[in-house]
Design a protein that fits this description.
By secondary structure, the chain is of the alpha+beta class. Helix content is about 25%, strand content about 25%. Strands 1, 2, 5, 6, 7, 8 and 9 form a 7-stranded antiparallel sheet that branches.
């Protein structure tokens, strides 16, 4: 966790429970006596088979125990153990009912290494110890009702009242039907947690759970971090969200930054069940009082923690989605940048007979190969994250349990946007060489990234409005004359059909995408009707304004998605039945070919791959083959 300035104000420990119902009939008067401890034991340990119940608030933690001998042969008493971190320990127990249990009692005190017997006041055995300046506990002493123990008695009384209040809140929720738990379950759903952790701030910037500098950041007074699912060898880990805040101050002997409490939300596998009814379906909630603590699953009695977790999660969710939307609206582009120079390509002799068989490293050179490795790694990771986000869409439609935007998570920013200007320059260099082998290597190693070029395409794309296959396998495409040219909805919407045509040009493209050329006007075909929907192999193909091509089943369900980029204007299945030509408003003419599997580098769940892509942008003198 990155260090937070010590001046940061901690979150008040009682800031979450002001409006929560309490059962004030529990331990009226809050006096330290045996009847109240018996009542607390019945509330905390209602099941005869349950022997321990632990909890914490602020700097105080506690443990209730029932009389038993555990698997290590350690004996426990009917008692309450309270710790105020590295300041005080208190032990409050019920006296033995008879001599038959004297052995258990003696074992309990032997385990605590008591030098003297505890004081018995108001039916309670009372014991305390204080910590010294180095953070080490002193000897146990009787907690008597005299001036010698005044400071210890005051600290014990305050902690005792805190424990009573903890269980008054728990009983208040139980008697009211646990409304807070219902609110927590409605807000913390796997869909909302996944949508939040897939925001670019987690996938691009703070995306290394095991790197202290990149595993999270301070969002105001709350530290936020997310773990993406992964695997290394036989070790696997799932998605998680962690929220931390300062909880007091470090005491002598503590590690730096140890005084931070945390909540962690882990997503469970589909067949895994959370340990108890406090956890929302599909999630495991755990908490820790300090960084050095082992986190424990949240229980139904942890009312203050449920309230705080609900507030922290919804606040952070709102803040991060708002910041993401602001960043999405901010100007971004991949405009050619003179400072982003593309690495130079080697200049092999075109007459070399073994050039087509040479490895990519020889033809492209080490600088281009390094750029390619980074581009591919980012592309594969981004595609996997988008596919995971898509997978959640059908399950996130319940408005009652989804935050605004949770049922349609914000689009993930493509991390390749920073490299896009450099790769675009490289693509233009490859295009200028007019070398089919060089282009094939570039195409294989630098899959096009629609998201990284989205804003550039929106500003410069000449819409590919109509497509028409010819019998000889060539493709005709009607392309707008300039970016932003609006196609009329019908011929009657323009002054004349000729005016509509004059805003566009027909191009002829070979089956390999090579050498596109404007078609002479006297060879222009009759304009086919718009077709942003088509059929292929029994699947309905539908293009969206978001640039996604959808494959739909007969009942309308989405079978697959394929990110093309730019609002899709026309879909034309190839005559051979093995491909699709798609034209978009972003200036893209894309030929997709059927494949045996999903391409892991494409933002797609289809079994189509890009055979080639022609880019019609008005800041380039000719179409760019990618």
């Amino acid at each position: 966790m990155p260090t937070r300035a010590r001046t940061a104000a901690p979150i008040p420990p009682d800031a979450e429970d002001t409006d929560l119902p309490r059962d004030d009939s529990l331990c009226p008067g809050e006096a330290l006596h045996a009847d109240h401890l018996r009542r607390l034991l019945r509330v905390a340990l209602p099941d005869a088979g349950q022997h321990k119940a632990a909890g914490w608030f602020g700097q105080t933690d506690f443990l209730f125990t029932r009389r038993h001998v555990d698997e290590d042969q350690d004996a426990y008493h009917d008692a309450l153990f309270i710790t105020i971190w590295k300041r005080w320990d208190f032990w409050l127990g019920l006296p033995d009912a008879g001599a038959a249990r004297a052995n258990l009692l003696s074992q309990a005190w032997a385990r605590l290494r008591q030098p003297v017997q505890p004081a018995v006041v108001d039916g309670l055995q009372r014991q305390y110890r204080r910590y010294d300046a180095s953070g080490r506990p002193g000897p146990w002493q009787p907690l008597a009702q005299d001036a010698a123990c005044a400071d210890a008695l005051q600290a014990c009384t305050q902690a005792w009242r805190g424990v009573i209040d903890y269980w008054r809140l728990a009983e208040g929720q139980r008697r009211a039907g646990r409304p807070l738990r219902a609110r927590l379950h409605a807000a913390l759903t796997p869909e909302r947690v996944r949508a939040l952790t897939l925001l670019p701030v987690f996938t691009l910037r703070y995306n290394d759970w095991y790197d202290p500098e990149r595993n999270g950041w301070w969002q105001g007074e709350v530290w936020v971090g997310a773990r993406q699912p992964g695997q290394q060898g036989a070790r696997q880990w799932g998605r998680a969200l962690k929220l931390c805040w300062r909880n007091g101050n470090e005491q002598p002997g503590d590690e730096d930054d140890d005084a931070h409490a945390c909540y962690q939300i882990d997503m469970l596998d589909d067949d895994a069940q959370p340990p108890g009814t406090a956890h929302p379906p599909g999630l495991l909630l755990s908490c820790g009082q300090r960084q050095s603590d082992t986190r424990r699953p949240l229980g139904n009695d942890a009312v203050q923690h449920m309230a705080r977790l609900l507030r922290l999660f919804t606040d952070i969710e709102r803040q991060l989605h708002t910041e993401h939307e602001r960043e999405q609206r901010a100007p971004q582009s991949c405009e050619p940048n003179p400072a982003a120079r593309a690495p130079a390509l080697p200049c092999p002799s075109p007459s070399a007979p073994d050039a087509p068989d040479a490895p990519d490293a020889t033809v492209l050179g080490p600088a281009v190969m390094a750029l390619s490795d980074e581009w591919q790694a980012m592309g594969r990771s981004h595609a996997a994250l988008v596919r995971a986000q898509w997978a959640d869409r059908p399950a996130a439609g319940d408005a009652a349990t989804s935050a605004p935007g949770a049922d349609a998570p914000p689009p993930l920013a493509d991390p390749r946007v920073a490299l896009a200007p450099t790769v675009l320059q490289l693509a233009r260099t490859v295009h200028a060489r007019a070398d089919a082998d060089l282009w094939a290597r570039f195409h294989r190693r630098f899959g096009f990234a629609p998201g990284a070029h989205e804003r550039h395409a929106a500003g410069h794309g000449r819409a590919v409005e109509r497509l028409l296959w010819r019998a000889d396998g060539t493709l005709l495409a009607r392309v707008a004359a300039h970016a932003g040219a609006a196609e009329p909805a019908s011929p009657a919407a323009s002054a004349s059909a000729s005016e509509s045509e004059s805003a566009s040009t027909w191009w002829q493209v070979g089956a390999d995408g090579q050498s596109p050329a404007p078609l002479p006007r006297d060879q222009w075909p009759a304009t086919p009707p718009t077709a942003a929907e088509a059929m292929a192999h029994g699947v309905t193909l539908r293009g969206g304004a978001d640039g996604d091509l959808l494959g739909l089943a007969q009942d309308g369900g989405v079978l697959w998605r394929h990110r093309i980029g730019g609002a899709i204007r026309h879909i034309a299945p190839a005559p051979d039945g093995h491909g699709l030509a798609v034209g978009t408003a972003g200036g893209y003419l894309v030929l997709l070919r059927r494949s045996s599997a999903t391409d892991p580098y494409l933002v797609s769940t289809s079994r189509y791959v890009e055979a080639w892509r022609l880019i019609f942008w008005d800041d380039a003198p000719e179409p760019l083959l990618w």
